[in-house]
């Protein structure tokens, strides 16, 4: 049976513009110019011999007939996406691209890749090492490892592990103190915190049996990597995720100052695009990493 279909590129442009009610946002999603979206929709209107949008100054709205078409197209394109993903992932083969920060990748992922490849010999991992928030469509990514809470919009977040932290410092900073140190001794030292996350110091002192000390010296940093670097340089005590710094603890460049540890409400998540289908290869990678980290605790 021969199907008489409109140009599929024009249909994609229309569906995106209808979903966003914006030619500009549709252009951004499809990585084309706004003029190209306008041209493709005009060509589709000529194909149907009917208007699809009411165009008003800086706003567009769908005609009643076009709204019904858009709803059906969205379902169909979702089905095509699901079928394509299932076909690609029906076996644990191929390549998946994952965004991850260099700070985390170099400590928790790359050193153990041989173990993953031994478990999944037909599956290749490519990493986009970046501190930028991953845009799945723009950078052709299948997933992303991201640090924080599980509330990132536009993605399904799978928890890999929460931070298990304790205070650490450079040995040079505390060489005169007997280890482990008491909470009051730690409070007398400069403390490092990620800006907006100083509450974790309060939680740690409470767990150690002491109220958060007033008047303590605290520096604030944009990222936990910077706070850790500050501690490594001998400038402060930082709360650090213990599995993440196991090499620094092993080689003596950092020392853990207390046996008191707390689990934070933030950690590493595997972010995958929203949708009805979960690529089993990403699930396998997330399960492997979760097990690998648990073995380091």
Automatic annotation (TrEMBL):
PROSITE patterns: HTH_LYSR. It holds the Pfam family HTH_1. SUPFAM superfamilies: Periplasmic binding protein-like II, Winged helix' DNA-binding domain. Residues 6-63 form the HTH lysR-type domain. One of its GO terms (molecular function) is sequence-specific DNA binding. Keywords: DNA-binding, Transcription, Transcription regulation. It comes from the Bacteria. GO terms for biological process: DNA-templated transcription. Belongs to the LysR transcriptional regulatory family. This is LysR family glycine cleavage system transcriptional activator.
């Amino acid at each position: 049976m021969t199907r008489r279909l409109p140009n599929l590129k024009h249909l994609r442009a229309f569906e995106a513009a209808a979903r966003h009610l914006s030619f500009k946002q549709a252009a951004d999603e499809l990585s084309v110019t706004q003029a190209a979206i306008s041209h493709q929709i005009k060509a589709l209107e000529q194909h149907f011999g009917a208007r699809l949008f009411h165009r008003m100054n800086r706003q567009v709205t769908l005609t009643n007939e076009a709204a019904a078409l858009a709803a059906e197209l969205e379902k169909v394109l979702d089905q095509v996406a699901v079928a394509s993903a299932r076909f690609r992932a029906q076996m644990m083969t191929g390549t998946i691209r994952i965004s991850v920060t260099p700070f985390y990748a170099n400590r928790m992922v790359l050193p153990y890749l041989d173990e993953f490849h031994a478990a999944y010999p037909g599956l290749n991992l490519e990493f986009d090492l970046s501190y930028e928030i991953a845009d799945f469509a723009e950078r052709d990514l299948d997933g992303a490892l991201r640090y924080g809470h599980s509330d990132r919009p536009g993605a399904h977040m799978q928890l890999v592990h929460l931070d298990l932290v304790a205070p650490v410092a450079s040995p040079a900073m505390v060489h005169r103190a007997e280890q482990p140190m008491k909470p009051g001794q730690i409070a007398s030292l400069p403390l490092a915190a990620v800006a907006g996350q100083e509450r974790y110091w309060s939680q740690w002192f409470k767990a150690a049996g002491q109220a958060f000390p007033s008047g303590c010296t605290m520096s604030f940093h944009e990222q936990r990597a910077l706070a850790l670097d500050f501690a490594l340089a001998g400038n402060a005590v930082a709360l650090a995720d213990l599995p993440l710094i196991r090499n620094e603890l092993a080689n003596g460049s950092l020392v853990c100052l207390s046996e008191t540890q707390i689990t934070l409400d933030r950690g590493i998540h595997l972010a995958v695009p929203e949708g009805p289908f979960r690529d089993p290869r990403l699930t396998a990678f997330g399960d492997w990493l979760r097990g690998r980290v648990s073995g380091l605790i």
